[in-house]
Amino acid sequence: MLIKIRWFAKGASDAGKAKDLAVVVDTLRCSSAVTTALEQKVNAIYPVSSVEVAFELRESEKFANSYGDPLLMGEVESVKVKGFDLGNSPTELLLRSDLKGRNVLLRTSAGSQVLNSLGGANEPSKIRAIVGCILNARSVASFASRLALKERRNISIICCGYQAREFALEDFLGAGAIVSQISEGSFERSDEAIASCLAFESSVDSLSKVLSETKSGRRLKETGQSEDIEFCSELNKFNGVPIFDGKLISS
Questions:
Q1: Cβ-proximal residues to 91 (8 Å cutoff; 6+ apart), any chain
Q2: Of 142, 189, 225, 236, whose CB is crowded by the most CB atoms within 10 A?
Q3: What is the CATH number of domain 1-251?
Q4: Domain segments of the chain as ranges
C-alpha cells in the first residue's frame, strides 16, 4: 500500500475515484481551525462552497430543522466575512465560550472547496476524509494508517494549496508532518511523500518561522493575524481526529 500526495480539488476528486483514504491538509488555516473548533466541543462543521450558500443555508427552514441555528465561520482572502460569527482563526476560537454543542457552516478559500470536491463516502468505511494538520499530525497518522491497513487502501494526503490553486509550502509541510509519523514498514511512500517528510523534518525546529515566510503566512501578517501562524505550528498539540462523511465534519 502507498502513501501519496495530491493537490487541490482535482487531487481530491482523483483520490475519490481511486477509493483512497483521503487526508485533507490546509495548514493555514482551515484544517487547524476545524481541529480547534472540535476541541472546543463544536458539534459538527458543515463545509460549504461559497459565502452565499452559507447565508442561504442559515436561513433555510429545512437546514434549521436538522442543525438548529448554526454559526457562520470563514474568510475570503484571509479576512473574516462580514456578517459571519467567526473568522477562520483557530486562536479566535480559543477565546469563545459559546461553541459547545453548536453546529457551524464553514466557508474558506481552499479547505472547504477541496472538501466539497470529495463527494459521498467511499466503501467500505463511510469515512470520506480525515482532516489533518500540524496540530494533530500524530493522531491523524495513527488513525489513518490503522484504517487504511484494515481496509487495504492507499492513503492520499490532499494538500489544498494557496487559494486552492497554487503550491503552498505550509500544506506540504503539514503533509510531511503526518507522513513522518506513519511507519515506513507498513506503507510505501511516493517520491512526493518522501520529499514532504524530508522537508518537514528539516524544518521541525523552526516551523513558525518557515510558515511565516510563506505566501499565506505573509498574508496573515498583513491582516494582523500573526498569532495564528505560531499556533498552527504547534506540533501534536491536539489528539482529535476530525472525520468528514461527505457532508459534515465531526470527531
A1: 227, 228, 231
A2: 225
A3: 3.90.1560.10
A4: 1-251
